[in-house]
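Methods — Computational structure assignment.
A single polypeptide chain was analysed. Its primary sequence is given first, followed by the predicted tertiary structure written as structure tokens.
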Amino acid sequence: MTQTAIAPQSVPVSGGARARKSAGHVIVDSLLAHGVRRAHVVPGESYLDVLDGLHTSPIETIVCRHEGGASYMAEADGKMNQLPGVAMVTRGPGAANAHVGLHTAWQDSTPMVLFVGLIPFAHRDREAFQEFDIKAWFDTGAKRVMVLDHAERASEIVAEAFFAAMSGRPGPVVIGLPEDVILEQIAPELHPPIPVATGGMTNADTETLVAALAASTKPLFVTGGNDWTQKGAKQLTRWLEQHHIPAAAEWRTEGTVPFDSPSYVGPIGYGRPRPTYDLLEETDLLVFVGTVPGDVITDGFLCRQDWNKTNFLVTMDPSLRGRSGPVSRQIVAKPDGFIRDLARIEPEVKPEWKAWTARMRAEQESFAALPPAGPGDGQARMDTLMANLVPTLPHDAMVTFGAGEHTNWAHRYFPTRGYASMISARNGSMGYSIPSAIAASLAYPGRRVVTIAGDGEFLMNGQELATAAQYGATPLVIVMDNQEYGTIRTHQERHYPDRVSGTQLKNPDFALMARAFGGYGIKVDNDQDVPAAITAALQAIDEDKVFALIHLIVEQRVKAY
């Protein structure tokens, strides 16, 4: 077993006569000591002292236009890094608006810390302005909910929150900051980061896995979760390729094993190709790494339910929260700890493994083959856009998206070639595309970031394009406009045919909206205009250093208002 910790930048822990600081400023110092690079905030009078501490801090303060956007950005930041993403909002309404990002972090197992300004301690339980019960609101959807009732514990609570967010199955932590408590003057000594255990395989785990591999003719690994490093992902990919063992990706986590790896056989989730559904039943040894077989992977707890099947679950969550189906053995380890030990196993490569992997890889390559690039006549099409966009993408391109049928094109065609090259919301949360794209662009300013949004989803947080312009984020935004909530329309057609209700939309000119926010915008109706629109949008990003938006108006199904 090994442990890791975020290396502190400066952590004075000894005593001595030093100038005292407010608890709010000590919180900022503690965030910096834990390696935090940016905080996503919507300001409030309840935590002014923390904002004041950020004024002179190297931590970049990203001022957002809505608490939902701020919490989504923090959640996306946590997906891209093992370090928790940080959001700060005010009490009552601000906390309510931020809840959507917290739920995403909870279901997606993302390390995140949400700071919430609270009413003064002395006003508690008197129905003060914007008062709410922070533990009652958040306790069932966060790993911990803490309130700073003692100012001298400010740095300790930050350290405890970061440890809780990263340890075991990662997730969100909430810290309440009473307005008067954070003003109190305290000693400035900081609590050091708390090491996080990575786990690993015991001798018994290794022996059991070696025996299972020896008995298997059709092994399959499934990668998922947000607890990986680039090093671990690359090491696993090498091991799989050397042994001709296939790997699939949990829904909306593609890229851990690269898109073009000979071992990668596709995504498993909603809208997945039929072969990856079938192989869950066909494989005789299933090894989940960083995730568990949950609702989406098992198609509503229906697939892979036979307890005679062999399933190894590699996760640091001893409770196996969300698990469905058989458990042959749990290996208590984070991906890096497991892969470190897996690399020492050298099973003999079987001809059956080669044939099994080659068959599934061929099916994935056929599924992911780009459609013809040549535009057709008539209405603009997403197939044409992807066929012309993908060849322009650099090797390290990233894609983000929220929820809806528009995401299917990213799942199928986008060339994810590394861990965290696909950033999405696995809890099906809408409105995630723009905030996550901004977070990705700010975290990796030299990379091409593409986000694909539906018309319904886009307007849930499209105003954060103002944040993109303010801080120089430069994503390429694709808005697929079919004038409806398409996924729900599909469910209606299936369950209530010819009775479409509550799903139709009348949209503004999104390209004009993008230009109003300070970016480049272009509206495309005709399929013939798609290639030129892509060229113009990418040119604006590269030359003018602005975000660009392509408003793609695609064919709508029969209207029903």
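Note: The chain has a mean pLDDT of 92.
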